[in-house]
# Entry
Amino acid sequence: MIPNVLSIAGSDPSGGAGIQADLKTFSALGCYGGAVLTALTAQNTRGVLGVETVSAGFVAQQIDAVFDDLRIDAVKIGMLANAAIIAAVADCLRRWQPRWIVLDPVMVAKSGHHLLDADAVDALRRDLLPLASIATPNLPEAAVLLDMDEPVDWAGMERLADTWQARFGTALLLKGGHLTGAASPDLLAIDASRHRFDAIRIGTGNTHGTGCTLSSAIAALLPRHADIAAAVGAAKAYLTGAIAASGELDVGHGHGPVHHFHQLWKTGHTS
# Structure
């Protein structure tokens, strides 16, 4: 059975991140994708120029409309913008109780534009993190959520993961892309177990939407894998391939997108 996966996130009109990246990822990995919009952004590969949020009530109406009609096998949550939207999403998810919830706590764009109100961090901790099957923060996001210093090495990532497990309990994929060096390790913490996913940095500036793509890949793969670790491993492999093939695209003049359909499109295809 083809999984139905729902993204709850903001829109990126340039197509590299947000809802657009999520739907591309779902399709590339063989899933039917639905989308609930939380915000409209004016952005491109160079940065975010503006944000218009959707009312919390209408976000809830979208979610209820989807769940009332579709079987939803997994949910990916991205940009939520403010505390009211977070509360509305949490209320809906408690009511509908989907099997898998992947939370990507989108706080700041690569351009430095803040995508989550400062007063919404507590709501994220209180209302959504307890519902998540797995959260996928980068190092700065995880540090903010835990009121800790940002890790600068693997040992620091392990300490942060221990604190996360003690405080929130939910599975954590801590993305190590902000570390310096040739490697970019990610740490998966599930209860007392720890998994390390190593990846060599790929020499490209095409990193727009990598976080969105990874979290949506995990959501797409969880219904088809026996456990979270297997889904994360497969999602990491997909993203690595999408980054490596990103040079086949010619999109924008800033941080270009990854190639979501690298496994499906033939290089040089023109018709």
